[in-house]
């Protein structure tokens, strides 16, 4: 019954129906399915069969990379209620200076955020999980995320895959400096931000591919908190919210804000918690045109 409530009652078939009535109807569906169900058992066919939401997985004649990846993905899915919390690192020195990339430490306001974060997270994750054996807080290997997570009393894990998008030759520059030194690159990135790759660096497309193992691990986890970077969290957010790739680079992920996503069978619930500590606004809106004369903001994006 609990599984029906958690999964099937979110179906469009039952929108607006009384939960008890919808559950009774679905149980009747199950009885009908059981009378007609024939398991796939042909030994000459390629298939993956999931039993009881993945408690048992039967695969047959799986060949090649794509089929293997599909099976791996299916094996990591589960229907357990969980929350994925994520937050950018506290405001950094580079954020204040309007520089992108780098490995700077937190600003004084960023340090305040690192001290305020544990209280907010405790309200939602609770103290019963403090002794969990699996890491519940993931950070990148960069100092600003590690510093932000330093006061959280949860098991932690540093992921190289969570490091910020590599800005290549533009690392440590402001957008004004990029527009002056590399005007063609500046314009090209505004024209196609998802596919544009910094010289010697990465594109959003590259980051999406880099994050595949992180996404797979998130699918099999229970409650988790990620302290990450703007581009990284945009990619993770877009995955769970099913956003198109042209919107992905422009998702607003503000500083000093915790975002909670609760995956559901037919979507994802979202809540945002803003901590009352000022920070610079690093969001760059989508350009109205593809011209290199697009106004240059003062903060990183």
Automatic annotation (TrEMBL):
Keyword Hydrolase: yes
UniProt entry tagged with the keyword Disulfide bond: no
Any single GO CC term annotated in Swiss-Prot or TrEMBL for this entry: cytosol
Keywords: ATP-binding, Hydrolase, Nucleotide-binding
GO biological process: fructose 2,6-bisphosphate metabolic process; fructose metabolic process
Limits of the 6-phosphofructo-2-kinase domain: 2-80
Gene3D superfamilies: P-loop containing nucleotide triphosphate hydrolases, Phosphoglycerate mutase-like
Gene Ontology MF terms: 6-phosphofructo-2-kinase activity; ATP binding; fructose-2,6-bisphosphate 2-phosphatase activity
E.C. numbers: 3.1.3.46
Top-level lineage group: Eukaryota
Family per similarity comment: In the C-terminal section; belongs to the phosphoglycerate mutase family.
Protein name (record): fructose-2,6-bisphosphate 2-phosphatase
Source organism of this protein record: Syncephalis pseudoplumigaleata
Biological classification of the source: Eukaryota, Fungi, Fungi incertae sedis, Zoopagomycota, Zoopagomycotina
């Amino acid at each position: 019954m609990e599984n029906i409530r958690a999964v099937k009652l979110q179906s469009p078939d039952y929108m607006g129906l009384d939960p008890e009535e919808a559950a009774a109807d679905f149980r009747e569906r199950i009885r009908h399915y059981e009378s007609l169900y024939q398991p796939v058992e042909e030994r000459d066919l390629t298939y993956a069969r999931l039993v009881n939401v993945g408690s048992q997985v039967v695969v047959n004649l799986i060949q090649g990379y794509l089929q293997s990846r599909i099976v791996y993905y299916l094996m990591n899915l589960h229907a357990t209620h969980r929350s994925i919390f994520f937050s950018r690192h506290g405001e950094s020195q580079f954020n204040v200076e309007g520089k992108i990339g780098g490995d700077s430490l937190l600003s004084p306001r960023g340090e305040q955020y690192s001290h305020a974060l544990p209280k907010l997270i405790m309200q939602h994750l609770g103290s019963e999980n403090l002794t969990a054996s699996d890491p519940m807080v993931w950070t990148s290997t960069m100092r600003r995320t590690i510093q932000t997570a330093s006061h959280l009393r949860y098991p932690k894990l540093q992921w190289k895959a969570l490091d910020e998008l590599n800005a290549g030759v533009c690392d440590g520059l402001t957008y004004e400096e990029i527009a002056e030194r590399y005007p063609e690159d500046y314009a090209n990135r505004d024209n196609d931000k998802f596919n544009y790759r910094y010289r010697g660096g990465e594109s959003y497309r590259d980051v999406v591919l880099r994050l595949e193992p992180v996404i797979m691990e998130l699918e099999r986890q229970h409650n988790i908190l990620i302290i990450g970077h703007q581009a990284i969290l945009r990619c993770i957010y877009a995955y769970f919210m099913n956003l198109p790739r042209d919107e992905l680079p422009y998702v607003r992920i503000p500083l000093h804000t915790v975002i909670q996503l609760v995956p559901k069978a037919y979507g994802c619930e979202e809540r945002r918690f803003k901590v009352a500590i000022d920070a610079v606004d690093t969001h760059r809106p989508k350009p109205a045109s593809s011209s290199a004369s697009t106004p240059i903001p003062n903060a990183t994006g």
